[in-house]
Amino acid sequence: MEKNNKIVKYKKPFRINIGLIVFVFIFCYLIFNVYSYMTAKHISPYEVEYGTMAENNIYKGLILRSEQIYHSDFTGELNYYVRETSKVSYNNLVYSVDENGDISKMIEDASKDSAELDADHLEEIETDIQNFQTSYHHLNFYSVYDFKENLSSTLNEALSLNALYQLSDYTAGGTSFHQVTADIPGIVLYYTDGYEGITTDSFTADMFHEADYDRTSSRESAKINAGEPAYKLITSETWNIVVPIEKTLADRLAEHDTLQLRFIKDDKKAYATYVLTEKEGQKYLILTLQNGMVRYAKDRYIEIELITTAESGLKIPNSSIIEKEFYTIPTEYFMQGGDSDSQGLLVERTNEDGGTVTEFVAPTIYYETDQYYYVDSEQISVNDKLIKADSSSKYTVGTDTATLQGVYNINKGYAVFKQIDILYQNNEYTIVKTGTAYGLALYDHIALDGTKISENELIK
Predict the structure, then answer these.
(1) Nearest to 229 by CA among 67, 70, 77, 66
(2) Residues 389-434: pLDDT tens digits?
(3) Burial track 267-305 (b if 16+ CB lie within 10 A, e otherwise)
(4) What is the Cα–Cα distance from 76 to 99, expressed in whole angstroms?
């Protein structure tokens, strides 16, 4: 029996791999989305909020006062009887000079043994302690040292004065012990620094280099030589603070002459009149005050904050602000017409056949003044002729243009320009006026970066 050598191959049925197809589809979909994301324009929104901003106007100023230095006519041991920054009247005893030192030694010994103070000095010390207790704050710990120095000076000078009275039999009629009194009223200081004669006209830029500043205290030595400064008097309650400032601040202050300031040292506030001046290209603010000088009589330099008006309004980032050019159309060419009460224009145009046609269009108004409406090129074009109602007058579009600052509002999913009225601006944010007819409203969403989008562009 012969074998059958004919072999028939079995054909496998074609089967669709659904899983592979789904995988390929998903993979392609992911690739497409990644590509779309990488190539798409990304517009980050920003929600408009209400805010307040003010400048950080803290400056260091140079204090100028009416100061008169008094030099000693004698050489010898020095004793003071008035606390520094105290007011003295005419003929009040300020200091004494003992040429041979005998009386000064007796005053020193008597003041050490003295246990009594007169009622005036006790009241003065009690008042100083109460004022310190009520005004002390842990953030101003340096005031403890000022208080300690003042209290020590008050005690020493009060005891010395009492001792002087007790030794009046020794001091009367002597030729080597000299008691010096004030010849005019004023506030006593016991240091000199060479700035006593400087005025608001004669100050120079190098006087603001505090590192080069030096002062000499007459109280640091128990002796004095003839011709050396013994003390000085501040002879007027009117004083000045000279502050170097930037041109931008000078421009803002140019329209006024009064402002409020805060002294960083003790957080006290005061009002001052001012004038602006310029020396060698540097702007200076010269403040004039009529009171409060005694609190800073020991200071030549003082830190102050200029309290300018804080602006409140809608707060937006500077990155969202752009500029856009508009046609400015005289208001008399607008009229009501069409199917609504919207303001529109009667436009004369040339059609494709070369004929003249007139149509009414209602362009979007972005801003208005007393004379003009601001419109863009969406519905009217340059060289279009506008016809004035009930008149033969015509106006050519593009004759006048103007630029507005604004942002792109994206509330509706596409970009709409909104004009802004800037009240205040710093390096990061801007405060704009609220309630403007063609402006922003609270909680509007705007494009964070106005340069990445254009008018009517859809937000993806």
Answers:
(1) 70
(2) 888 889 999 889 999 999 999 999 899 999 999 988 888 999 999 9
(3) eeeeebebeeeeeeeebbbbbbbeeebeebbbebebebb
(4) 4
Instruction: Assess contact for 252 and 308: CB atoms under 8 A.
Output: yes
Question: Quick one: DSSP state of residue 455?
Answer: T
Pull the structure tokens for residue 401: 């243009």
Whether 278 contacts 234, CB under 8 Å: no
**Letter for the amino acid at 283?**
K
Q: What is the DSSP letter of 414?
A: B
Structure confidence by residue, pLDDT tens digits, 48-61: 999 888 777 899 99
* Ranges of H-type helices in 114-141: 119-135
* CB-based burial, 385-420: b 16+ in 10 Å, e otherwise: ebbbeeeeeebebeeeeeebebbbbbeeeebbbbbb
Q: Any bridge partners for residue 35, and if so which? A: none
CA dist 53 and 430 (Å) reads 8
Q: Could you give the 3-state DSSP secondary structure of residue 423?
A: strand
pTM equals 0.58
Dihedral Cα 40, 42, 43, 45, nearest 10 deg: 140
